[in-house]
## 1
Amino acid sequence: MELEEEPTHRSTKDWKVAAIRKKLDICAQKLLEVNQHAANLEAEACRIREELNAVSAAIMSLPPEILIEIFLLLCESRRKDNAKRLCSEYPPQFLIGSVCSLWRRVAWGTSRVWRTVAITFSSRRIETQNQLLQEWMDRSRTSLLDIYLYSENLGLAEILFRNLYQPPKETFAIICATNERWRTLHTPRFTHLWDQFKSGNAPATSLYELCLSLPSTEEVQTIDWDLRGSVHLKKLNLEMRGRRGLVINWRALTHLQICTSPPECLYFLPNCLALESLTIRHGFHSEASLNLNDNGACTTRLTSLTHLSLCETPMAMENVWSYMTAPNLKDLTLSPTHTPDDCMRWSNSLIQFIRRSSCSLEKVAVCNVSTTCVHTLLEEARTVIQLIVVLSIPYGQQVISNAPVLNLLNSSLYGSCHLPGLEELCLSLKGDLRTDIDTLLGMIKSRVLPLLPPRNGQPPGKKIRKIIIMYHDTALMEDVEPDTLRRFYEELHSLSTSTGTSIKMVTK
């Protein structure tokens, strides 16, 4: 006789079966969704393949002369202002060659594709690199070469005061064999390379741009290299303690960037009469004075100079502009290593240089200076179109007031508009936003809203197209009432929307 299951046991079993069936249904639904998604992806992949085939078919059908121009654009469009980054990039020539045999045949058979040589020497791969260099030079044939050399851990060697890795003589024998085709050369001090320079084995008659850097860990002061035959040399970037031993036609240079020890950095100036751009950076320390009167120096008139950038001690900067005039100067960048001790004397010396030059500045960037220096400069440089100011707190002070600079830029506070042609403004402030907020907002309004004619009848200034305000101490912003800060940002947004001026407020 069969026993019937108790109702309670049967209901529990049915509940478990129902739960399992529900899970199976959910899994089945998910599986359907996954299959559908996979089908959609496959369809999308087919569509993309068809588009790629259509595009590649058109590209593949291009004549070789058009392909070559595309390849050259790809190879030459890389940024070359940072040798370390450039030398670490994978060569685009190899990327092109990996696409197909046609591209590889066209690209690798074109000498101009190989005219840029960028390599970071490695002690572990130097034999392979030497073979690659030889093959690279052979493929470049008669093309002028842009050569960028770097060494493994070069930056780390500077920090840890270690000598950088020096490749063997064979490496530079390969490079120097092509010296008559050098158009650009960027290199730190490699012993065997500089030995080649000293021995006269690298006249580099086609050289146009040269960048030589001497790590501060080196005991060598300068380089012995006679480049009088390099009649095309126009751009020179020199980073070493001295320039003696380097024989150059200074009169032909148009762009000079120099980082050396005083008083070396100024002795070349009277000969560089064709300069269009001059950059002097502080790097090597020296106890020597920059007073040129002891050497009978006179003021040099640089009529072609349009860009001047100085990053030096305040006294060194004074000496630079005290012995030169630049009537066509348009772009001035000043970044003293520290805030001038006597701001008024430093500022007056700068103003005398501007007046003596009778130049119409269009772009001015000043960093690490006080409000006094900026105020004095802005009162004189009224033709500026682009202004960048990074204020600093003078030694011994805890806070500074930004009001003098902000009020000077406020076109509604004076009878005439200071900097009437100003179109771009970037201010990096270090004061207290709580005390600056109304003054700052008033200045911005006066430069972006429709400008009323000045009371003296002069035409109104231009409306600024771009404003960037930076505050470096975010702790000072915490003292501003939240509602006040919110209204301030809302008003900036409203002004930007209604006037079309790009207004950004940045905190660091």
## 2
Amino acid sequence: MKVVAFERNLQGTGASRRLRRAGKTPGIIYGGEQAPQLIELDHNALFHALKKEQFHSSVLDMDIAGKTSQVLLRDYQMHPYKQLVLHIDFQRVDAGHKISMKVPLHFANSENSPAVKLSHGLVNHVLNEVEVSCLPADLPEFIAVDLGELVLHQSVHINDLKLPKGVTILTHGVDNPAVVTVSPPPGGVGEEGAEGAAAAEGETK
């Protein structure tokens, strides 16, 4: 995803206010062996980019004065009650060094699973994103989680996820946390659901 930015020479509260009044958002790029670089971006373009999942979880190609470098979105500040981006931070990416980044989970097929179709279970998303470590070229935009085989009372854990090559998940000391759980519907499993689940289990034996 391409991002266009411009060099910024002035800093400080007053300069930032003038930038915002002119429809710009102040920002900074840091990291690597280079010194931090002050930048400014078109506010409207940035505001709409922030609505895109890809902007938050992928390596971005940033163009500054015709030169392109790879960066990651690291932080941004919004106005407390206005739709206004006050400031934004990017980190430089080195192709040869691993990065850590939060990546969204995309869940699919839960509505077709035995847990839902036969047992009318409730699928609970315990996690909606995970932090991964990988080289920049291996960073996935998302991780797909197929829930088509879920059954009642089953849990899907971090170790059950199918990861792209070169990608590992950081759990920061938590041992194999749950990603998805399935609980019975209010009042428990109905007779039809229980019979259907038993029949399905018998067919698989």
